[in-house]
Amino acid sequence: MPLTTSAANPLIRWSYFTEQWDRIQEALLQHIQLTLLAVAAGFVISAGLAFLGLRYRWSIGPITLFAATLYTIPSVAFFGVLVNYLGLGLLTALIPLTAFTILILVTNILDGFNAVPAPVREAADGMGLTPTQRLFTVEIPIAVPYMINGLRIATVTTVGLVTVAAIIGYGGLGRLILDGLRRTFWTPLTIGASLSILLALLFDLLFFLLGAKLTPWAKRKQTL
């Protein structure tokens, strides 16, 4: 049955905010929690895979293939398969969400370190820097913009994917959307969708500001 607006079923019923505020707040906080946990876990895993790829160049192909394979798995199918083994729970939601970030993050981390010019590495070695000192004082600062860009894309993507986790009861704002669809009720659907969009825009802005803060030289370079 298609959703249609009417006096009985308006696009937004403002009384819903006061009546269901605790539920809306809980859904929003869960959405943020799932997003941050998935991206954080994905970044740690991706950093480890990128380190392996940079140390053993032959492994970059298999690592990328592995990450791409995870990314191509349909999200609903991924959640559905895990439910059979792990049941309905936070871990069942986090595993697919984390898996979908790995391709984005590992490729951006690799691109960041590959962007370090060979003469810069040679100059750092010539100055007597140890590999660890060169990593933290030369390579990571150059790779930071790529990492931030990867985190920015992965986070915004994850905000959208979290809503799909509503099918297993851990979808944050997706639960409001699903509730609206099941009951043919516009208000929770509109609230869930609108807050999801706003949350994605907010995370995008925060990572943009973080990137500008951590790489002030990039802005100076553009003004020259």
Query: Which series of helices and strands comes N to C?
Result: HHHHHHHHHH
SS strand fraction: under 5%
Q: List the domain count as a whole number.
A: 1
User: What is the CATH class?
Assistant: Mainly Alpha
Oligomer: single chain
**CATH superfamily heading:** MetI-like
Structural class: mainly alpha
The third-level CATH topology is MetI-like fold
Rounded to an integer in angstroms, the radius of gyration calculated over CA atoms is: 21 Å
Unreliable runs: none
Q: How far apart lie the N and C ends? A: 59 Å
Count of runs of 4 or more consecutive helical residues: 10
Return the average pLDDT rounded to an integer. Answer: 86
Question: How much helix is in the residues?
Answer: over 70%
Tell the overall outline: elongated
**CATH architecture assignment name:** Orthogonal Bundle
| Largest sheet data | none
The total beta strand count reads: 0
